[in-house]
Amino acid sequence: MAKYFDVHPENPQPRTISTVVDSIRSGALVAYPTDSCYALGCQLGNREGIARIRTIRNLDDRHHFTLVCHDFAQLAQFVRVDNDVFRAVKAATPGSYTFILPATKEVPRQLLHPKKKTVGVRIPDHVVTQALVAELGEPLLSSTLLLPDEEEPLTQGWEIKERLDHEVEAVIDSGDCGTEPTTVIDFSGDEPEIVRRGAGDPSRFE
Predict the structure, then answer these.
(1) φ and ψ at 119, to 5 degrees?
(2) How high is the pLDDT of residue 176?
(3) 3-205: which CATH topology?
């Protein structure tokens, strides 16, 4: 059964955050809130966690996983960013955007797009998410909590606990979360491409 954590959305309890992060380091798969919608997360090198996310969401190997980063300095360790892209990404973070960029060697191979060798990265504007990643000390491997054959992500922590009680080890409930996933911008080509229009305003990249 999944452990259920009621976490304040603006002042997350440090002890609770530490407990959740300890479980992540021990291999746990967690459901947690972001500035867009709920997500599934695990530690970067957790092969079993990655496989479980693929199973829960019914994902193929072309799916871009996202590295949720604490700040831009951390983000830059895992993706290659030139000056123009740096300015564009910097201006939009923290926020509800995911950026697809060429990965560095720090990213495990199983997370990369099989042909492009790219990965998604983001810096959420959410206090609880930031607290988790800061305590973890590395990016949180993440994927939107959108179940197969459903049009919108789950929005309530208690509902996630009911639906995924035997699929995840922990659920963080910080109140109602949105249903709109991040806006996804692909910077791996010559021009930025809007892959998905979501919670972040895409007009700055058009």
Answers:
(1) -150, 155
(2) 86
(3) DHBP synthase (3.90.870)
> Using an 8 Å Cβ cutoff, are 29 and 166 in contact?
no
The model's pLDDT over 125-141, given as tens digits with 9 standing for 90+, comes to 999 999 999 999 999 99
Secondary structure (3-state) at 47: helix
Q: How far is CA 152 from the centre of its chain?
A: 16
Give Cβ neighbours of residue 89 (< 8 Å, ≥ 6 apart): 72, 75, 81, 97, 99, 187
In degrees rounded to 5, what are phi and psi of residue 68? -85, 115
Number of H helices, E strands in the chain: 6, 10
> In the sheet where 97-102 sits, what is the strand order?
3-6, 170-173, 30-32, 39-43, 140-144, 66-68, 118-122, 97-102, 183-186, 193-196
pLDDT tens digits, one per residue of 77-111: 999 999 999 999 999 999 999 999 999 999 998 88
- First CA to last CA distance, the chain: 45
SS3 at position 168: coil
Rounded Cα distance between 104 and 114, Å, is 14
Which SS3 state, helix, strand or coil, does residue 52 take? helix
For residue 74 the two structure tokens come to 């951390």
Distance between CA atoms of residues 5 and 84, nearest Å: 41
